[in-house]
Design a protein that fits this description.
Structural class: mainly alpha
Largest sheet: none
Shape: elongated
CATH topology: MutS, DNA mismatch repair protein, Chain A, domain 3
CATH architecture: Orthogonal Bundle
Distance between the termini: 43 Å
Order of helices and strands: HHHHHHH
CATH class: Mainly Alpha
Radius of gyration: 17 Å
InterPro entries: DNA_mismatch_repair_MutS_sf
Number of strands: 0
Number of domains: 1
């Protein structure tokens, strides 16, 4: 905790800035889990997680050098790996259908989904 609060590491500032800009992903995931989300919200959550994976992956070299707390270091390095499948799922979604809320056209290819 002290490294987050008192560190002058630019990578931690970048990660905090990145997280401040993302929508409420936790709320969105809960909404998806409880089957209460809209098509737009579903697409937004998947898109946000995909963008987060890309952004954090770009910071991995800086994290390896600048972050000293072992648990924080490990957690930050695991983010890209844990979110790696989001790009695959995002590529299977129809952005235009999501924008207009069309559930029937949301998936580009239904063969991948039972």
């Amino acid at each position: 905790v002290s490294e987050i609060l008192f560190s002058e590491s630019s990578v931690l500032d970048q990660i905090m800035s990145l997280l401040y800009k993302v929508p409420d992903v936790e709320r969105g995931i809960c909404s998806i889990y409880h089957k209460k989300c809209s098509v737009q919200e579903f697409y937004l959550v998947v898109s946000t997680l995909s963008n987060l994976e890309t952004a954090v992956k770009a910071l991995v070299p800086a994290v390896q050098v600048q972050v000293r707390a072992s648990l924080l270091h490990k957690s930050l390095l695991e983010i890209p790996e844990l979110l790696s499948s989001t790009k695959k799922y995002l590529s299977k979604l129809n952005e235009e259908a999501a924008k207009i809320g069309d559930k029937t056209e949301l998936f580009k290819d239904l063969d991948d989904f039972p």
